[in-house]
Amino acid sequence: MKYTVPSALFGTTGIGAYISGEGGYQFLGTTDAFYRVTPAPVGINYKDYATWNVGIGFTYKVFTLDLRYSDTNLNKGDCNAFTSDFSAGQPGNVTAINPGGFGSKWCGSAFIAKFSADLTAAANLK
Q1: How far apart are CA 48 and CA 65, in angstroms?
Q2: CA 50 from chain center: how many Å?
Q3: What is the pTM of this model?
Q4: What pLDDT is recorded for position 64?
Q5: Rounded Cα–Cα distance for residues 35 and 46 (Å)
Q6: pLDDT above 80 (res 93)
Q7: What does residue 77 show for φ and ψ, rounded to 5 degrees?
Q8: What is the DSSP pairing of strand 15-26 with strand 2-4?
Q9: Residue 5: what pLDDT?
């Protein structure tokens, strides 16, 4: 979802703004039997998970500043199994697909700031 703030609120400054958010649910299924382990002889059932984010953005000519908060319900152990996080090291996160128990911080909540420029509209820089 995205709501564009009416430009009348900013007068003739050329500044614009929007509020947006999105959510999703990942259904990942099961691996083939090649990846089986003793508790799962026909394959490993991947963890389904939800993800979402909400943010606000400001625009000026070709520039955009987007400030966003993102989160998921994927636990640290399954996150490590899906991402192969080379920096994972939080023990105690044993799951069906991560028997080693190392956890990853890559899938947790995060604040994200992004500054971008749309160069296809470079004529608007004048």
Answers
A1: 32
A2: 10
A3: 0.73
A4: 96
A5: 12
A6: yes
A7: -70, -45
A8: antiparallel
A9: 93
